[in-house]
Amino acid sequence: MTTTIETRHAVHYSQSERMTSAELRENFMIERLFVAGEIHAAYTHYDRMLIAGIMPASSPIQIGPELAKVVGTDFLLERRELGLINIGGKGRVTADGTVYDVDFQDGLYLGMGIKDISFESADPAAPAKFYINSAPAHANFPSRVISKADAIENNLGDQLTCNKRKLYQYIHPKVLPTCQLLMGLTRLEPGSVWNTMPAHLHDRRMEAYVYFEIPEEAFVVHLMGRPQATNHLIIRNEQAVVSPPWSIHCGSGTGSYAFIWSMAGDNQSFTDMDFVPMKELK
């Protein structure tokens, strides 16, 4: 089994505004997350969020000492919590001997203090794809599976503005207690392509996205940067983006798609947003 770990250092907006397209991708994108039988991870300096993709093949995958070394502890969740959503086939997670069945679009929260974590696919021909976020924690809260039915459903947008979508809040204070991690899934309706418009900022929290269910010839244009000086990234299927607190985060695709969003930072208020008037975007 191979564990690949990248690092994303914090970048000031004045630096990002001078970057080329390749430099923006290097600093803010995670281009490869899901490889059969491997762990691919990125440790970010934005609220110390750890992002990872695990796709078990014929054998289970266990989190080893490599990730613990990155966060400076004896095991990964010694001082952390972990959330995930499965965007692949049926899977199973075993945490300190407790088995959690995690189907497609199910989420799982693991609390601080869990030492041994392994992942497996129910059918290697249709492997699970566990998209993982982990943030620092100060207390232990109960682990549990969060099904799509357990999540809070929000119906947003309108067909007239091409942004009709369903937003599901999986890891949220009204669903279960966590230290700081928030996590959910947004799916655009057929014919809608815009997400998160009007754009907003939240200087108190960072955010990360993974876009998925994007056909091979399609893509999403992810807008980032200060409202007065936006940049863009071309995102393909199952690629992730780190969004700094100073950056807007919205986008439009060549067709409908889905994405998982996650946040860490000073508060857990999903509505803590500083909206940007559309006329101010440049």
From TrEMBL:
Its EC number is 5.3.1.17. InterPro entries: KduI (IPR007045), KduI/IolB_isomerase (IPR021120), KduI_N (IPR027449), RmlC-like_jellyroll (IPR014710), RmlC_Cupin_sf (IPR011051). Keywords: Isomerase, Metal-binding, Zinc. It catalyses: 5-dehydro-4-deoxy-D-glucuronate = 3-deoxy-D-glycero-2,5-hexodiulosonate. Zn(2+) binds at H200, H202, E207, H249. Its cofactor is Zn(2+). Pfam families: KduI (PF04962). It comes from the Bacteria. It is an enzyme of class 5 (isomerase). The keyword NADP does not apply. Pathway: Glycan metabolism; pectin degradation; 2-dehydro-3-deoxy-D-gluconate from pectin: step 4/5. The keyword Hydrolase does not apply. One of its GO terms (biological process) is D-glucuronate catabolic process. Binds 1 zinc ion per subunit. Catalyzes the isomerization of 5-dehydro-4-deoxy-D-glucuronate to 3-deoxy-D-glycero-2,5-hexodiulosonate. HAMAP family: KduI. This is 4-deoxy-L-threo-5-hexosulose-uronate ketol-isomerase.
